[in-house]
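Subject: for your reference before the review

Hello V.,

The reviewers asked for a structural picture of the protein, and I figured it would be easier to keep everything in one thread rather than splitting it across files. Below is the amino acid sequence we used in the manuscript, unchanged from the supplementary table.
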Amino acid sequence: MEDKKLAQDQFVSVDISEFFGPQEHKDPDAGIVVLTQHQREIYKRLIEKAKDIAPEKYESFQQRMRYLQELAKSIANFPSLLERHNIFGGERTPQSLIDSLIEHQTEGDYTLQLPSKATLGKGFLVAKIHTFSSLSKFAKSIKEPEEVWQDFSAETNSMMFSLLAEDVYLNLIHDKSIPNDFKQELATSLLLLWEHRSDQNISDIAPTLLKIWTARRKLAPAFGTMMGTSELLLLSMQLDDQWTSFIKTKLGDTGVSQAMEEFLFGISHEQIVQLKTILRTKGIPAIGRDEVSKFLGVHVKADAGLDYRDFYSLYSLRRDNARVRARMGLPGPHKTIEDYFIQFVMEQNKEKQNNDSFAK
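And here is what came back from the structure prediction:
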């Protein structure tokens, strides 16, 4: 009893109800949110139609859902990350996990440094993403109204952003320029994401990130000055106040502007610099996206579709390049535009909470 009270005292700042709405409360027997209320509703409506018109698909999806539920229950058997436990190697508390995440600054892959529950949960999330992607394609194939399959697609994208959030939190926690108190908040959010595979911060930010990606797809930047000013203005006009505030406040920072260039043009900072030099030397004012590979002499995917896999693939490429630059002290962005934006939003939210508390 005393241990339980102490654990609660050490993690008093975390109130699960603040991070998850009523529809997202976890099953009492499992830490992971298998399906939110909204996901259950859209799945139930579609699966009832599948039962009549595509029995084989119906059974396949039902079986897949049972697998997800069984996987979530198995993962729930691992020690909760939000409670005190005596495990191999000593006692573990939420605060000791947070401290370990912040203090462990070794470069390289983090996989073996993370709790087992975090790694297993990531696999669960990937399986769920693929399941909802298949449901979206199925809804489209049976001529369901666009809003039906788009609903499944939106849920798929939202889960992909949760996967992305895990990377962003780890990137920011290992950023030596970020204050320790903010890292404590980032680590707390990461523990909650690992425990439930749902993240309120990203749920709020994901629609904006998706709008940025969609707007970017509609743009046709001319690779000349490579500044992307007109593209950025078009992009910003289509988005919300949060993004506009970010652009106004942070675009003057060199790292942010370079990360934005990478995002807009779909090629690395190094390739952008190389292309600028080539075009300047040849006296060519501008080229289109389809000409980038020819001028660089290597195939580059400067364009991409709206598929969630394209977004994550190009994000992970920018993420890996940024990590290498940071480690080697090389010029160019040391973080992705997603890192910068999510950090900005969380800092704004923290400032608002502080102001609200002060006002009381």
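For the response letter, the relevant points are probably these. The mean pLDDT is 84. Residues 146-173 form the longest helix (28 residues).

Happy to draft the paragraph if you're swamped.

O.
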